[in-house]
Design a protein that fits this description.
Layout: H1 26-41, E1 46-48, E2 58-61, E3 73-83, E4 87-92, E5 102-107, E6 109-115, E7 121-127, H2 128-141, H3 152-176
Antiparallel strand pairs: 1-2, 2-3, 3-6, 4-5, 6-7
This protein binds ligand K1U and zinc ion.
Length: 177
């Protein structure tokens, strides 16, 4: 397995739509394993292909907490086939927007159909953090970030702050060269 580099916003690669996977072959299964390793190391509870520069409809999620045994979900071509009318606010973060957190309101429960790492069709119903993470990761496949769900004022403040940090980081690296 290998750890992948996570793209930090603002970056045009995070705003593009990802393409469906034809079928989950060995290379896709390896990518899913690498994405999970990257997510655990970050640490995070989800990761989507575009965040590691892969414009494919692949997401990985594990919302198990601390002492719980790992319960990874590896999904290709996830589709929401049902969403509850009830919506709930939840605080969201993103590995591509480090140290930024905001409340986002989404459907409380969803049913999602996807291809697993063995190319088998699966369907699960999710609520709580798992439902939030699935919807957050699926947004990445459409080039949508959690800040796209908040006011443009807050979004611009966050994106400008991240752009400044990136610029500062680059300048530091150049000084060290
Ligand atoms: O998409 C991502 O960058 C992953 C993101 C998923 C997510 C978290 C919370 C609400 C919605 C979506 C993260 O994992 S951010 C990091 C995080 O929440 C976390 C980190 C360590 C332990 C527990 C949570
Ligand atoms: Zn994210």
């Amino acid at each position: 397995m290998a750890q992948l580099d996570i793209i930090i916003a603002p970056d045009p690669r995070l705003k593009r739509k990802a393409a469906p996977v034809a079928n989950v072959d060995a290379a896709t299964a390896k990518l899913m394993a690498d994405m999970l390793e990257t997510m655990y190391a970050a640490p995070g509870v989800g990761l989507a292909g575009p965040q590691v520069g892969v414009l494919k409809r692949i997401i990985v999620i594990d919302t198990g907490r601390d002492e719980a045994p790992p319960a990874p979900l590896k999904m290709a071509n996830p589709e929401i086939v049902w969403a509850s009318d009830e919506r709930k606010p939840h605080e969201e973060g993103c590995l591509s927007l480090p140290q930024e957190y905001e409340m986002v309101t989404r459907p409380e429960r969803v049913r999602v159909r996807y291809l697993d790492e063995n190319n088998a069709v699966q369907e699960i119903e999710a609520e709580g953090l798992l439902a939030v993470a699935i919807q957050h990761e699926m947004d990445h496949l459409e080039g949508v970030l959690f800040v796209d769900h908040i006011s443009s004022l807050k979004r611009n403040i966050i994106l400008r702050r991240l752009a400044k940090q990136k610029k500062h980081g680059k300048r530091s690296a150049a000084v060290g060269e």
